[in-house]
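Example 3.2
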Amino acid sequence: MNSEDFQTVRVSHIIEINPRVRRFFLEYAEPIVFQSGQFIIIDFKDINHRYTTRSYSIADFTNGNTIELCVVLKEDGAATPKLFDHQIGDILHASLPKGRFVLPIETIENDLFLICTGTGVAPFRTMIKDLLFHRHHQANIHLFFGGRYPEDLLYQEDFEKWMIEFPQFKYYPVLSRTEWSGLKGYVHEHYLKLLTTQPKAHFYICGWSEMVKETRDNLKELGYTRQDIKIELYDS
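Structure, written as tokens:
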């Protein structure tokens, strides 16, 4: 991207979820156009790396000109430590929303499976809000969210609340490294239980690369095609 493709944005709010995860709210000078599932690119300019830009999925969109990012700190990374140094009122250089990991414009008639790990849940939060609150979506939405520990389950209160308000929304948090009353292990065994009859469905997968690859392979073995599956990769 050229330097003129970046906007000056202000950090308007920060919420610390835990020492490794923060929610950053970025305010643009003008209203922007956004599709749920998209991301922005931030140019850090002076980081010690061959590439100075990084992409972050948008976790929420409010007030016409403010977006939310949910970012996990990569301590040995070149970019996220810089981002975590920023305070409210600081300035960043960010692109407008981009990307094709988005919902179709037309009504989705079949079940929708959203499968993610870590901050890969961010684009799904915007998709779910779009479907439930704006499109009045009626088909089932299955969110499978994998993590290691309870603190990895981002936006837990939102998803539990929406599951009560909207019976078509199904939420399946899965933890792999803790004892708890919920689903245990990895997401694969749990979504596969709902696919034994190979129902017509659409799939969006976002998260750690190994999970994304294994999920895609599992779905292809069941007979689902490239037209049924969209993916977005994240580094762990």
